[in-house]
Each structure stands twice: as structure tokens, then as C-alpha cells.
Amino acid sequence: MSSTAALAPSLEDEVDPETAAFYRRALRVLVDARIPFLVGGAFAHACFTGIRRSTKDLDLFIRQEDYERIATLMRAEGWQAEMTYPHWLAKVFCGEEFIDLIFNSGNGVTPVDECWFRDNAQAEVLGVPVRIANLEDGLLSKAFIMERERYDGADIAHLLQANAEQVDWPGLLARFGSNWRVLLAHLTLFGFVYPGERHRVPQWVMEQLLARLADEVRQPPPEDPHVCAGTLLSREQYLYDVERLGYMDGRLTAASTMTETDVAHWTQAIPSRQATAPGAALPDPVTGALPGAAH
Fold first, then answer.
1. CATH code at 96?
2. Backbone torsions φ then ψ of 39, nearest 5 degrees
């Protein structure tokens, strides 16, 4: 994505003024400290698609090694900073409001590394000049979110509908790597959602992915490692496979950076496993955070 790309307005009108002041100050602190970060989430989605929607938090992508320095700066502002899930997510709280500091994906597949900080588009978010997470990294991180309560496939379709000609397609294929089937699934659905715009995905991309699929189908089945990679798409819906059917959890293979401790912690945060009492507050379905509570 070119750093000179024209971006749609970001979400000044969708955020409560007090919340916007918190976000604005946090962004300014990071900019002044020259700590690399990228704005993602609803803000970036609005920049790339023009789709404006209210947001309950601000998503910032950071390198994990920068967390302690960021936490020190945030605490100096009187805010609480904590490592919520050590394999991918930290948070900064100002009362009930919070900012997500993201350094991986919940499935451990997409760690934020130096590749994320190349040729980023510039934008003003809440009046602060910032860099936006690249379109390709947004597509990559959203592609694996397929929970019962949240599926980001529509976001991917809208990102492609608005930006197909600007996608770094060779780079995107490289970013998906051995998970190319997930990309093919989303590109196939894009052609279903927008049948008159299928041609906007380059022909060579589809041909290359379909050739990989055809080649794989022709090969004899590999020695069965009895892995269920569904856990890379949903932390809940494939637990039956790994807990009852004896499949190896895909998050505990080389495909992910997660450990058994990470998996156990992330599984315990599933809403259905947290609702232990009538009327108990449920955690956020994606981040696992309880409303108004520190985690």
C-alpha cells in the first residue's frame, strides 16, 4: 500500500469526547517518545474503506519488546497498563475506557515484526499524525477470526472491494505462507459477494492458489499427524476435536507461537467458561476482557 494513498476520514465523530481525549493523549505520548506503533481496528478500517462505525477501544499494533517502555509512559499519565494475555495482547485503562496494545494475533500466527512497519500510509487520527497498519497486515490478521460471535470475513470483502488494485499481492501471498488455503477461501467468497468484481483479484493470484490446491489434491495423503488447525480460526468451536477426539491443537504446532500455558489461559477466557454464576458479566468475545475490569 503506497504511503501516499488517499485515506478516508477516521472516526472523530464516533467516539465520546472524553474517550477521544484519552486516545488523543495516548497517541501523542507515543509519537513524542518516537516509539513505533500502528493504528489498526475500526480506525484503520475507516481509513481504507470509508466505513465508519463506533468503536469500544483503540487498537494499536506494537512490537512486543516495546511494551515495557510503553507501559512506563502510560502509567506516568496516571493510567493502568497490564499484560492481559502474554502471547498477544496488553491493555491500557483510563477508568472504563481502554486501549489494546496488540503484538500478535489471538491464535499466535501473526506476530508484529519489522515487516509491519514498511511503507505505512500516514493519516491523522483524532488530530494526531500517525501511521496506519498496512492493508495486507490487516487482511492477514482478520482472515483467521471465525468465531461464532465474530467473523471478520465481511471486513476482508470490504477491504478488497475498496482497495483490490492497491494490494501488494505477491507480498500478501508471502505473508500467508503455508496458510494459503485461508486466503483462497476469502478470495473465493469475495467473488461470491461481488460477482461483478471478481476480475479485480488478479487472475494470476487465483490461478496460482488453485494450482497449489490442484497439486495438493493430486498428491498422496501425507502421514497423518492428526492435527486440527481449526483452533487457529476459532478458540472455542474446535475444542471438542482437541479435548474429546484426540487431535493435536494446531496452536501447539510450528504454525503458532502459543504455548500450552497460553492456550489454557486463552481458553479459560471463553465467555461460556466464564459464566459460572447467574447474571455474571461476560467477557468480550474476542479479547476476553470483562466489562470495566482489569485483566
1. 3.30.460.40
2. -85, 130
Strand 58-61 to strand 97-102: parallel, antiparallel, or no bridges (unpaired)?
parallel
pLDDT digits (tens, 9 = 90+) for 160-200: 999 999 999 999 999 999 999 999 999 999 999 999 999 99
Residue 278 lies in a domain: no
Secondary structure of residue 101 in the 3-state scheme: strand
Given a cut of 90, is residue 283 above it in pLDDT? no
Q: Judge if 73 and 18 occupy the same domain.
A: yes
Average pLDDT over residues 83-100: 96
Can you read off the three cell numbers belonging to residue 225? 499427524
Residue 8 located in a structural domain: yes
Instruction: Give how many domains the chain has, as a whole number.
Output: 3
Beta bridge partners of 129: 124
Cell of 268: 479459560
State whether 45 and 129 are in the same domain. yes
Is 290 part of a structural domain of the chain?
no
Whether residues 113 and 198 fall in one domain: no
The backbone torsions φ and ψ at residue 58, rounded to the nearest 5 degrees and listed phi first, read: -115, 125
> Cβ of 70: how many Cβ atoms within 10 Å?
23
Q: Is 231 exposed, middle or buried (0-12, 13-18, 19+ CB in 10 A)?
A: buried
Q: What's at 245, amino acid-wise?
A: L
Write down the residue that cell numbers 488523543 correspond to: 24
- Residue 128 in any domain: the answer is yes
Q: Is 236 exposed, middle or buried (0-12, 13-18, 19+ CB in 10 A)?
A: middle
Domain that holds residue 154: 147-219
Q: CA dihedral defined by 141, 160, 201, 62, rounded to 10 degrees?
A: -30
